[in-house]
Specification:
The protein is α/β, with parallel strands linked by helices. Helices cover about 35% and strands about 15% of the residues. It has two domains: about 10-45 and about 295-395, Aspartate Aminotransferase, domain 1 (Alpha-Beta Complex), CATH 3.90.1150; about 50-290, Aspartate Aminotransferase, domain 2.
Length: about 400
């Protein structure tokens, strides 16, 4: 038998999903599974944006079945520009700054590939969205976690402390910084002080900032979403990623967009073209319908806030009230080992409830788990938390 060619080093470095052990445990459960581990919603998207509401016969067959423009259709990009100027205060934005992508994950992947080289270091404010480490590693970029503010017992640092925390991790290889607001998994919303701290470090060391803003529409604290690209000196060095998945419940259609300075946007387009070439026209057409809906986000935000409050009132473990996003980051330290809470989550899985292990969000958070309070209807949310509480009482 001949030799087999080797796999890439980057692919070998990527670990198997930490969720694998939990999925395996479901084999022991015969009832209805309640998936609280995934960042999704049970809310249907705006009616006009649903595929069944779009009369395909009104779309030219050539457009329906042919490639769409690689940068995105003009109508959608212009609607996004209007939104960026009015909602994100990006008065400098134009269609040349916008690249339509296959979800925000694709936007972030293209961003990392566009501005970072193998061997560069990416500072990652943690707890963080799990896939950012994998995206970096797949590009031979080193993710460097900077523990920030999810810990229920310790609270969040001041602006000066945040600057100092970031400075401790700066090396000659540091080239960029990743942040997410509202943050996944703990729902922390960066205010003026926090963004000013990040901007100060980025300007001081001439770093790129990759700003994940996919939960921008879901803030419950009364604060306004702030985009770091609008800070002095930051438009030229910021790539912002947005999502139709989170804002409009269109996750299955895989649609997002990146916003960047014109020369960076050109590089992002190159990366997008060499991975997917272009996003389907019908998907983008759904997005134009969603952006035209003036009522969906406000109604859904009120619904999500009620679900958040219900989840907090129901669960028996410690949790910080999230300012935004769609998650509780639950502290299970009373019931699990400091280095590994997965055995506890396996016990939940034996009861048919899945949570996302905290270790996926940063090395400091192994005693935590993420619970999505929007992924199922209220009655299933309550039932899932009830099963969790029953298991905790049995320990």
């Amino acid at each position: 038998m001949g030799k087999v060619p080797k796999l890439s080093k980057a692919s070998q470095k990527l670990p198997l999903s930490i969720f694998t052990r939990l999925y395996d445990r479901l084999e022991n459960f015969s009832g209805e599974v309640i998936p609280l581990q995934i960042g999704d919603t049970s809310v249907l998207p705006p009616e006009a944006a649903r595929l069944q509401s779009i009369a395909f016969e009104e779309i030219e067959a050539k457009k329906l079945y042919a490639y769409s423009p690689p940068k995105g259709i003009e109508q959608l990009r212009e609607m996004i520009v209007a939104k960026l100027r009015t909602e994100n205060n990006m008065s400098m934005a134009s269609a040349a700054n916008v690249q339509i992508t296959s979800g925000a994950t694709h936007a972030l992947s293209c961003a990392i590939r566009a501005v970072l080289d193998p061997g560069d270091e990416l500072l990652v404010l943690s707890p963080h969205w799990p896939l950012i480490n994998g995206i970096a590693a797949s590009c031979s970029v080193k993710p460097v976690e900077v523990p920030f503010c999810a810990k229920v017992r310790n609270g969040c640092p001041t602006q000066k402390d945040l600057e100092q925390a970031l400075e401790q991790y700066i090396t000659p290889a540091t080239a960029a910084l990743y942040m997410s607001t509202p943050n996944n998994p703990d729902g922390f919303v960066y205010g003026e002080k926090e963004i000013s701290a990040v901007a100060a470090v980025a300007n001081r060391h001439n770093l790129w900032v990759v700003s994940d803003e996919v939960y921008e529409s879901y803030i419950y604290s009364g604060d306004k979403h702030l985009s770091i690209a609008t800070w002095p000196g930051m438009w030229e060095k910021t790539i912002s990623a947005f999502s139709f998945s989170k804002t409009f419940g269109l996750a299955g259609l895989r649609l997002g967009y990146a916003v960047a300075p014109r020369d960076v946007a050109v590089s992002i387009q190159k990366m997008a073209n060499t991975t997917i070439y272009s996003v389907p026209f019908v998907t983008q057409h759904c997005a134009t319908r969603a952006l035209a809906d003036d009522e969906f986000v406000a109604a859904t935000r009120a619904d999500y806030q009620s679900r958040r409050d219900l989840a907090i009132q129901s669960i028996s473990a410690d949790v910080e009230v999230p300012m935004g996003s769609t998650y509780l980051f639950v502290d299970f330290s009373k019931w699990c080992e400091a280095s590994d809470c997965v055995p506890l989550l396996e016990r939940f899985a034996d009861r048919g409830v899945l949570l996302a292990p905290g270790a996926a969000f940063g090395r400091e958070y192994a005693q935590y788990a993420r619970l999505c309070f929007t992924s199922v209807p209220n009655e299933k949310l309550v039932e899932g938390i009830q099963r969790i509480n029953e298991e905790l009482l049995s320990i």
